[in-house]
Amino acid sequence: MAARIGKAETLDYAQIDVVGKLKEMTGNRGPDACIDAVGMEAEGHTIGALYDRAKQAMMLETDRPHVLWQCIQACRKGGTVSVPGVYGGFIDKFPIGAAFAKGLTFRMGQTHVHRCLAPLLERIEKGEIDTAGVITHRLGLEEAPHGYEVFEKKQDNCIKVVMRPHA
Length: 167
Description:
The chain is α/β, with parallel strands linked by helices. The protein is built from 7 helices and 5 strands.
């Protein structure tokens, strides 16, 4: 979706070393900003990701911070790491020393939906933003459990489910 709609260059973590590729793309400097939009449910195939899974299975850690670690590793000195992805508990071995040494700025928390909603809806109504490529499923409220399952399991090319209370 990011490549198709936003014309962004995308990297597939299952195919490449994301940190290494970002360093290569920026002349070994690193991006100015990195975003962990995944949060506590991060997936991965590196040793760090497998380690997080094992700690979580043994109840030694509640979250899987693999993407957050990658953001800290990749981001340039003096850069910004934004975390709209949700973390709910404890992270073991958080690399605070690396973040400190790079002088990173952290911005995190729940998205301020109420502040953004009115201007966003206005732009959609004016036709400045086309949601056709984002909203893939429209369901009645009684179909909410099915909608959550399709979204969570990434079935049927699901990107965004919109619930209609009176379908």
